[in-house]
Design brief:
With 202 residues, the chain is mainly beta. The chain is 2% helix and 47% strand. It is built from one helix and 23 strands. It is globular and about 45 Å long.
Length: 202
């Protein structure tokens, strides 16, 4: 309703200071909004409530893209490409399909896609999966590659789960840092080829 309590059509840019309505992108009727006849889903705009004296009709924000990669039970999205775990981080680069661990200390890493994992230089990283969590330390669907000069310690306490599993892919460990795996089932497992190289200790 307008300031007089009547439903009317107002032109773009009309300002109602009393009721704090401000529209500047299209013509609408207030009764169509208030009575549910206005289909917001078909518009590229939304009402944005802010701290100003008006409601601004602004361009809708595109929803974030979700990527098939999780660390510490948290999924990467286009709005969230760096996840803090302990005192370190896990940073995902979707263009490269690369996950960089920089002092990571958290739970399982899971990817429903191929994944290259890089251990940042000089860092100590840890993946710990308690016995009541039915997850692998690291699991990818497709190829999994570990590289870099950081160290990685993986502990999986459930007796039926591996330390690292490349599901339907190759597993390549080419690290100059050290890799330690303590798992209830296999330490390293690949459905296809398993290759270990580099100068780090395993």
């Amino acid at each position: 309703d307008d300031a007089d309590g009547e439903s009317s059509e107002y032109n773009t840019g009309t300002t109602f200071i009393k009721d704090k309505y401000y529209l500047w992108s299209l013509d609408v009727t207030w009764d169509s909004i208030l009575n549910g006849g206005f289909d917001f889903d078909e518009m590229s705009t939304v009402i944005n409530f802010n701290d100003s004296d008006y409601w601004d009709w602004t361009q809708a924000t595109e929803p974030a893209t979700a990527y098939d990669v999780w660390v510490n039970d948290e999924q990467f999205t286009s709005d969230n490409l760096s996840i803090t775990c302990g005192s370190g981080t896990a940073v995902y680069d979707p263009a490269k399909g690369e996950l960089t661990l920089n002092g990571y200390n958290g739970s399982y890493i899971k990817a429903n896609t191929a994944l290259d994992i890089v251990l940042a230089d000089g860092t100590e990283n840890a993946v710990s999966v308690p016995v009541d969590v039915t997850e692998y330390g690291i699991r990818t669907v497709g190829n999994c590659t570990l590289s870099g000069s950081g160290d990685l310690n993986i502990e999986v306490l459930h007796p039926a789960f591996d330390g690292i599993w490349a599901d339907d892919g190759d597993l390549t460990v080419d690290m100059t840092g050290d890799l330690t795996v303590n798992a209830g089932d296999d330490g390293l497992y690949a459905d296809n080829d398993l290759t270990v190289s580099g100068s780090g200790d395993i």
